[in-house]
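Archive maintenance. Older records in this collection stored only the sequence; we are now back-filling the structure field for every entry so that each record is complete. The fields below show one back-filled record exactly as it appears after the update. Entries are processed alphabetically, and Thiamine diphosphokinase is next in the queue.

ARCHIVE ENTRY
Title: Thiamine diphosphokinase
Organism field: Sphingobacterium haloxyli
Length field: 187
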Amino acid sequence: MSSHHIIRENQEPALIVAAYEALDEEYMGQLLEWSPTIIANDDTIDFFLAANIKVDVVFSVKEITYPQEQIRTFQIKNGFIPDALDYLIQNDHEAVNIVCDGPEDILASYCTLINIVVLSHRIRYVYVRDRYEKWKEAGARMFAPETQLKSLLGLKHINPNEFVTERDGFIYLEFNTDEHVRIAEDI
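Back-filled structure field:
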């Protein structure tokens, strides 16, 4: 990438952190490289402040002022993640990475409004429609709901809703629903 690369406002995925310990430090560092809009809560703000990482928004149940002057604070109304997603959608963000203890069911209702990736304890969850294809190494685990699978290629079934790639190369999943489907892979 050249030094002349221009990044538009809200072009990079925002970062919602509900549980900073749900992602290892190296992967978190990769997410922070592009200076995303960072949204924290009462449980995660101290992690960012201690690391001297700029936070853009905090959703809180407390009324508090933070040492970083630019931090916008909002009261939690419907839950941290739904409130953070509503904020991002209202501010024209197109994508978000969410670091949390696991995907919440409510996320599916936001998939038509914003592209969501959930990162949780060495698993990456994505919400896809119709089909999914990706290059994977042999032996990589994938998780997909069998009841919503129409066809698959490059994967071997090993347990309910769990598959492993047969060889290095592209894998393909096709779904039998028009709804978003949550699939997962090890990271």
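Update note: The chain has two domains: 14-121, 128-186. Confidence is low (pLDDT under 50) at residues 1-7.
Entry marked complete.
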